[in-house]
Amino acid sequence: MKNENLYNIEMTLILDGKKLASRSEEEFKIRVSELKEKTGATPILATILVGNDPASATYVKMKGNACKRIGMDSLKVEMDESATTEELLEKIYELNRNENVHGILLQHPVPSQINERVCFDAIAVEKDVDGVTSESFGLMTMGSDAYGSCTPYGIIRILKHYDIDCSGKSACVIGRSPILGKPMSMMLLNENATVSICHSKTINLSEIVSDSDIVVAALGKKEFIKSSWLKKGCVLIDAGFHPGGYGDVEQDGLDSICSAYTPVPGGVGPMTINTLIMQTLESCEAKFK
Question: Is the pLDDT of residue 8 over 90?
Fold first, then answer.
C-alpha cells in the first residue's frame, strides 16, 4: 500500500535555489567584511584545473566569480593535460601546507591517467570544502563535524530553508556517485528520513519512486525519471542538468503532481557553488575561533 500524501499540494512550492543563493551571498559579504576587520584575513579558495576541458574551465571561473562577489579571494592553479597523479599530489600537498589557503577544490573530472580518488583523499580534511574526501564522508555519515559534499549539502540547505521536514518521510535517492548520490542518502538518513538508494539498474524503480515522499534525481540521465512515476504531493529535487535546460526528471505536469520541486535550471545548481563558498568562509573563520 502506498503511503498517504504527507504534503499539502494546494499550492505547489518552487524551491528557488537561485534566490536562496543570492540571499546567502548578502550574509556572506557581511561575515567576510567582519572577518577582515577583526583578523585581517581574507578567505581564499584554491581551485585546481587539470587539462583544458571547456566545461570545467567555465565551472572554475564561476566559482572564482562567486568568491569575488562576497569579497573572498581565489587562487587558480592550472596544470597540463598530461599531468601525472604524482604531480597533482605534490600540488595538493603544497596547498595543504599553505596557511593562507582555507579551501581546496580539485575540479572534476581529471584526465584519465590520474587516480582521482587518491588525489581527492590527499586534500587535508580541514580544507576539504568541497566534501570529496573519504574521511569527510565518513565523518558526515557518523554525524560528526565535516564539510559536506556541496551538491547534496546544498539540497539539504534548500529543504531546511523551505521548512520541509524529512523526519519519518520515505525518501528515494536515484544515483550513487561518491560526491552526490551516496552522501545525499546519508544526509537524508541523518535528517531521520527512511532512505531507498536507487540507480539506473534498480528493478521496479518506478514503483519505489511512486511510493516516495521525497525524490532526489541525481543519476545524470536526461529525463530518465518520468513525471507519471511521482507520488501525488511528493517533494522533488532534480539535481540533473542537460543542454537545453532539461533535468533528470520530465518537467511536464510537475505543478499538478508535486507539493514542491526544484526548477531546472535555477534550483540545485546555484546552491552547489554557494555551499562551496560558505564552507570556505567557515574554514577561514574556524582558524580564528
Answer: no
